[in-house]
């Protein structure tokens, strides 16, 4: 069974930094591209960033480009999202999502349960 | 960027109803269209990919259709567990984009 477990969320001041983690199990993590998707309180889904299986290609939404960095450690089965220069509008639940195919872009199949990031003074 | 427009934004239905949700892309997306279900306080669940293919374990009461820029999600006989918000998403090109969601209420 595929499991994706996010962690690292919390309360941070505007301008601060936070690193999210997504620990994977139940599949060959290093073979699949991964993504981060967020959802602001009461709002819809917004794709944030994607990363190829071997970290050769990164993709970002314009809203986070230059501030967020996606990375992965295939030896640790873990996906990361380093978030810098955080703004109030970055407040959201952050989900990691696995590609169904071994290339990108492709459809997602599995999602984590999410971790809440709150940016406030 | 490809814009995804869902309609309606919400709908009221009864148990047993047939429900159809529409999603329109601002340009052709080669049928790279997915549908997700999200219940309150829960993570999204993947339902359909490639416009009409069911994800593993998804019941056949869910079906997707369409091509080019216009797509639909149909729930054949609404059950209490189907009351949720549904999102479409294009994965033809980055940035990946979602529709605004359709809330299905009693």
Shape label of chain B: globular
Estimated structural class of chain A? mainly beta
List low-pLDDT spans of chain A: none
User: Percentage of helical residues of chain A?
Assistant: under 10%
Q: SSE order of chain B, as H and E?
A: EEEEEEEEEEE
Question: What distance lies between the first and last C-alpha atoms of chain B, to the nearest angstrom?
Answer: 34 Å
Number of helices of chain B: 0
| Mean pLDDT over the residues of chain B | 97
Overall shape of chain A: it is globular
Q: What letter string, H or E per element, gives the SSE order of chain A? A: EEEEEEEEEEE
Total count of helical runs of at least 4 residues of chain A? 0
The major beta sheet of chain A can be summarized as: 7 strands, mixed
**Oligomerization status of the protein chains:** heterodimer
Written account of the structure:
The complex is a heterodimer of chains A (121) and B (106). Chain A is mainly beta and 121 residues long. Chain A is 0% helix and 50% strand. Chain A has strands at 3-7, 10-12, 18-25, 34-39, 45-51, 58-60, 68-73, 78-83, 92-99, 108-111, 115-119. In chain A, the strands form 2 sheets. In chain A, strands 2, 4, 5, 6, 9, 10 and 11 form a 7-stranded mixed sheet that branches. Chain A is globular. Chain B is mainly β. In chain B, 0% of the residues lie in helices and 48% in strands. The termini of chain B are far apart. The interface between A and B is medium-sized, with 23 and 26 residues.
Topology summary:
The complex is a heterodimer of chains A (121) and B (106).
Chain A: E1 3-7, E2 10-12, E3 18-25, E4 34-39, E5 45-51, E6 58-60, E7 68-73, E8 78-83, E9 92-99, E10 108-111, E11 115-119
Parallel strand pairs in A: 2-11
Antiparallel strand pairs in A: 1-3, 3-8, 4-5, 4-9, 5-6, 7-8, 9-10, 9-11
Chain B: E1 4-7, E2 10-12, E3 19-25, E4 33-38, E5 45-49, E6 53-54, E7 62-67, E8 70-75, E9 85-90, E10 97-98, E11 102-105
Parallel strand pairs in B: 2-11
Antiparallel strand pairs in B: 1-3, 3-8, 4-5, 4-9, 5-6, 7-8, 9-10, 9-11
């Amino acid at each position: 069974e595929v499991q994706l477990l996010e962690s690292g969320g919390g309360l941070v001041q505007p301008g601060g930094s936070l690193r999210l983690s997504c620990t994977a199990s139940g599949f060959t993590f290093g073979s699949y591209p991964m993504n981060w998707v967020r959802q602001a309180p009461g709002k819809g889904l917004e794709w944030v960033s994607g990363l190829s299986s071997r970290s050769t290609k990164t993709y970002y939404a314009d809203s986070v480009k230059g501030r967020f960095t996606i990375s992965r450690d295939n030896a640790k089965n873990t996906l990361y999202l380093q978030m810098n220069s955080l703004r109030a509008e970055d407040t959201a639940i952050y989900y990691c999502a696995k590609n169904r195919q071994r290339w990108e872009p492709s459809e997602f199949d599995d999602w984590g349960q999410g971790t809440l990031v709150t940016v406030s003074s | 960027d490809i814009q995804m427009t869902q309609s309606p934004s919400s709908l009221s239905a009864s148990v047993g109803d047939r429900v159809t949700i529409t999603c329109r892309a601002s340009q052709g997306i080669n049928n790279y269209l997915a549908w997700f279900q999200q219940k309150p306080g829960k993570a999204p669940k993947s339902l359909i990919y490639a416009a009409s293919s069911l994800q593993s374990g998804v019941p056949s009461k869910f079906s997707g259709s369409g091509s080019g820029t216009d797509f639909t999600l149909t729930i054949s006989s609404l059950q209490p567990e189907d009351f949720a918000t549904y999102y479409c998403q294009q994965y033809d090109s980055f940035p990946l984009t979602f529709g605004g969601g359709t809330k299905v209420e009693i």
